[in-house]
Structure formats: C-alpha cells, structure tokens
Write a sequence for this structure.
C-alpha cells in the first residue's frame, strides 16, 4: 500500500520532470518525442494500477506526511483514475502517431522544440486538477494547464490563431479569477483549503448560507466559461477554428474532461448539485445550446466547424447527464466524448493535410476502404447510432429525463439526436458515397491516422462493457 | 466603525469593476492585459483583507517557547496563497505580452 500511495504523486511528478528535462535537452525532436512517450506511458501505467487499487476505497496521499490541516493532500478514486487513464491514453496515441508528423513544421521555428515541454506541462496540469484534494493547489494546476493551452492554441497556420489565443487568455484568466474568488469565500467561511474538510463543514449546515450562495455564483460563472457552455464559448469557437488541427487532437478531449471535472469536483465534493442547478438557468442554457449548435453543425459547410459545433452539443449533453443521471454515467460520457473528439479531429487532420477544408472538396478525392471504414465507425459513434457507446449514454439520459418528467428537455434531446444523425450522415455521404467514382483522385490515408482511429474505435467499443 | 471595516471590501470591488471596465471598453490588447492585472490585484486585496484579525499582529512568532502567550496573529495563509497568485498573474501577463509581440510582428498591430 505504501508503494501504491506514492504512485498518486508520482503520476504527476514524472511528466513534470520530463517537461523540465525537455527544455534542457534542446532541439532534438526525436529524443524529446521518446521522452514524452515514456513519461505518458509511465503515467498511464500508474493510472491503471491506481484504478485497480482504488476500486473499493479512495487512496489518499499527504505530501511530506503533513496532516490535512496544514498540508496538501492528493486523493484518487476509481472514477478519477478512469479519467486520468483516458487522458494518458489520448496523449500517448497523439505522441506516438501524430506528433512525429509535426516535426517538420516545428523545425521551422527557433523555439519549436519547446512544444513538447508545453504538452507535458499541459498534461501535468490536467493530472493535478483531477488528483489534488487541496483547493488552492487545484487553482495552481488549473492555471498551469490554462497558460500552456494559450500558447499551444496560438500555434497555427492562420494569423488569427494569435488573436484568438490572446482573447482566450483574457477570458480564461477572468474565469480563473472567479474561481479564485470562490476559493476566497470558502477560505473565509471555513478557514481550510482541504476539500474534504470544506465538504464536511458545508454539509454540517453551520456556515453562512448567503456567503455560500455568493461563492456558488462566482464558481458557476468561472466554471461555465472554462467548460464552454453557451454563451460563454465564443473563445472556443475562434481559437479552435484558427489553431493547427493537430493540437486539437489531444487538447480538445483533455480540456473537455478536465474542465468538466472542475464542475464535478467542486459540486460533488463541496457544494450541493441542487444548489448549483437550483435556478434552472444552467439547464436552460444547456438545452438551448443542444438545439442551437445541432442546427449550426447541420448548416456548417466547413468540416472543422461541423466537429467544433458537435463538441458544443456534447458539452450540453454532459450538463444534462450530470444533473439528471447517476454519477457513473457522466464519467462514461466524458470518456466516450473525449475518445470521439480525438478520432474526429484526427479525421479532420487527415482531410486538411490533403487540402480538403469544405464538404464540396471531398468530391475531388477517393480514400482507401480502410480509412473510410474507420472514419465511418467514428461518425456512427458521434451520431449516436445503435450499438455505440454514445447511443447507450443517450438512452440512459432519456430514461432519466422521463423518470424526472423533463418532457421539454426530452423533446430537445430527440431533436438534437436527429440533427446529429443528419450532420454526421452529411460527412459520411461525402466520404463514402460521393467518392465512389472513377473521376476522383485515389489517396492513401496517413498510417499514423489510421492506427489512431483503429485504437480509438477499439477503446470506444470496449467502453460499452464498462459497468455503470 | 462597521462601515470603515467594510471600506476595504468596497474598494476592492471598485478596483475589480475598474479592471473589468478597462477590459470591456478598451480595443487595445495591451490595455486589456493591464485591466486583467488590475482585476487580479483586487482579488489579492480581498484575500489580505479577509485574513486580518482585529488586533492581530504580523505573523512572526513573538512567543517562542512561552506556552501561555496571549498574542493574536493575522492569518499568514492568505499572504502565502497570494504570493503564489502574484506569480501566476505575472506569468499570465508575460504570456500575454509574448502573444501581443507576436501579433505585432505578424499583423503590425496591437
């Protein structure tokens, strides 16, 4: 057990140390890639060991053996390690199959090699957010993750990538400031920074309820901006549209898991879910977002835009699942959504590398059957077709909506599901049906992308057997 | 006296609002960054104000090994947290400046 407890902090230290080593090593991209792969593989194996060990009871680690009154505690559970395993897997797949293709572009920039250090710091931040049980430590890791994501997103072919990264920096820092204000309220009320202690004091009912409501208000604003719920997601649209699509393969899924976990962590462990969702504003925003972005995805002509709007729809689903369904379903949704985003952005990377930006451009080329088959499975999963994990999640959500008599939201979910089928069918039709003629140019897909899609499809299929 | 106790909170809200107004109203990204730093300074002030215990002195141990010491200290926790927050704010500002420089180079604009 002593060794297992050390893994809680080691899964964080190894990528952080690798990030520092990457800066020292300098401009040797292959070596940096190997170091990053080893660091993320080690963290993945530690996450899996912790996941098996934390099945029955959570694992606590106190830094320096200091008590939770004055020290920093790390706490992992089965569900948090599931998320960490997913993050580590996605990063590992990216580093092995996609990152080597970026080396040519990285060599053109004087400090391009720092990209690996940034990825590893981003990864460290995401592990820290999920693993820590200290609320200020949580804020520090949030800022580490945010700062690195601003720089990663600024790296793109379009000049607008710098502007959108700067706008993301400003709005992201405002969101972090609101979360810092929440921490201020909790410190002011409880005198403690330990999440377990704060939780015990909040549920005891001895705290000033007005100040607690102020804290919840601050937290709601900060979390909603970070997660990207409408109307706070304008930064996400602009920065995702203009950045290098290869960055989105790992950044979009990891940030969707981690940012949503910010909501779960503070809601489940400190505040009450009913307090956060009390005024129905968040549920209303989620429902409207579901319909609006499903419509926008259907109307979009640019391939990347369709996937970005599709990711907003999945964020809205996340809120509905989190409120209406049980806790395990939200974790399954986060994992399925992250894998789906990774796969979809990989497909977009492959298409954009062949200069296919719009739906009409797909008429010019004809891919091999293997790529089309794998891409089709990803689109089926994203559309929520039967026998896919997203379909099972939607059915569970619909059951819970009916149990709670949320008829309007039930109807919106049905409409959004139909719209998802339509815009995913548009992509499938462009990829498969239209191209089946002799006037188009035959193209072989990149092997890295094919292997990425294969592994993600296998993982998504395996997720169906995850017990709730 | 009660109003004077709350004066620092009112001032910090005013500073927060000023910083927010600069971000919203300014078209220049450098000024928006300055507005962001002002917002972070207001949060700093809130933390330090909340840690002040009435007659509390600076948190330097006056009692040493004297068990029956009746000295009240201001809470040092907030000061420690704000040291970290200042560093984070400075890092954010530095990243912002770097992005503005790059934007200036590529687009010849701020």
């Amino acid at each position: 057990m002593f060794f297992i407890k050390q893994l809680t902090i080691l899964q964080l230290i190894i990528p952080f140390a690798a990030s520092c080593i990457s800066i020292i090593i300098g401009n040797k991209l292959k070596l940096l890639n190997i170091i990053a792969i080893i660091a993320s593989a080690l963290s993945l194996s530690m996450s899996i060991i912790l996941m098996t060990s934390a099945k029955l009871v959570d694992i606590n680690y106190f830094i320096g053996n200091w008590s939770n009154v004055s020290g920093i505690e790390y706490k992992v559970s089965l569900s948090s390690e599931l998320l960490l395993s997913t993050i580590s897997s996605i990063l590992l797949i990216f580093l092995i199959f996609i990152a080597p293709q970026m080396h040519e572009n990285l060599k053109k920039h004087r400090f391009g090699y720092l990209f690996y250090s940034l990825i590893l710091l981003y990864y460290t931040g995401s592990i820290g957010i999920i693993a820590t049980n200290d609320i200020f430590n949580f804020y520090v890791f949030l800022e580490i993750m945010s700062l690195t994501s601003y720089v990663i997103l600024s790296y793109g072919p379009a000049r607008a990538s710098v502007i959108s990264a700067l706008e993301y920096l400003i709005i992201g820092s405002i969101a972090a400031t609101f979360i810092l204000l929440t921490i201020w309220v909790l410190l002011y009320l409880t005198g403690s920074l330990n999440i377990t202690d704060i939780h015990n004091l909040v549920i005891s009912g001895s705290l000033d309820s007005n100040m607690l409501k102020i804290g919840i208000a601050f937290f709601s604003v900060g979390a909603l901006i970070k997660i990207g719920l409408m109307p706070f997601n304008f930064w996400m649209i602009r920065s995702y549209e203009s950045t290098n699509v290869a960055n989105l393969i790992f950044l979009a899924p990891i940030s969707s898991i981690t940012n949503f976990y910010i909501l779960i962590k503070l809601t489940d462990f400190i505040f009450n879910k009913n307090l956060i969702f009390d005024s129905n504003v968040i549920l209303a925003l989620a429902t409207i977002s579901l319909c609006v972005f499903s419509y926008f995805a259907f109307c979009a002509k640019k391939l990347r835009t369709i996937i970005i709007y599709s990711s907003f729809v999945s964020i809205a689903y996340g809120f509905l699942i989190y409120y209406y369904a049980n806790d395990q379903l939200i974790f399954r949704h986060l994992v399925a959504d992250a894998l789906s985003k990774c796969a979809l952005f990989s497909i977009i990377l492959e298409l954009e590398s062949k200069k296919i930006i719009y739906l009409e451009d797909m008429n010019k080329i004809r891919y091999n059957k293997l790529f089309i088959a794998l891409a089709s499975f990803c689109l089926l999963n994203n559309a929520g077709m039967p026998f896919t994990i997203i379909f099972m999640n939607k059915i569970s959500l619909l059951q819970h909506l009916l149990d709670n008599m949320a008829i309007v939201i039930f109807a919106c979910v049905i409409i959004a599901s139909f719209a998802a089928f339509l815009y995913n069918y548009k992509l499938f039709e462009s990829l498969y049906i239209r191209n089946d003629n002799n006037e188009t140019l035959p193209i072989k897909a990149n092997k890295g992308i094919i292997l990425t899609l294969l592994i993600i499809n296998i993982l998504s299929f395996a997720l169906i057997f995850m017990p709730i | 006296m009660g109003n004077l106790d709350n004066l620092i909170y009112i001032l910090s809200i005013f500073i927060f609002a000023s910083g927010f107004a600069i971000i919203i109203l300014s078209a220049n990204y450098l000024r928006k960054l300055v507005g962001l730093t002002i917002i972070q300074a207001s949060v700093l002030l809130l933390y330090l104000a909340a840690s002040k215990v009435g007659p509390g002195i600076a948190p330097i141990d006056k009692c040493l090994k004297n068990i029956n010491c009746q000295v009240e200290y201001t809470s040092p926790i907030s000061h420690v947290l704000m040291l970290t927050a200042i560093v984070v704010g400075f890092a954010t500002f530095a990243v912002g400046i770097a992005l503005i420089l790059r934007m200036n180079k590529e687009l010849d604009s701020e």
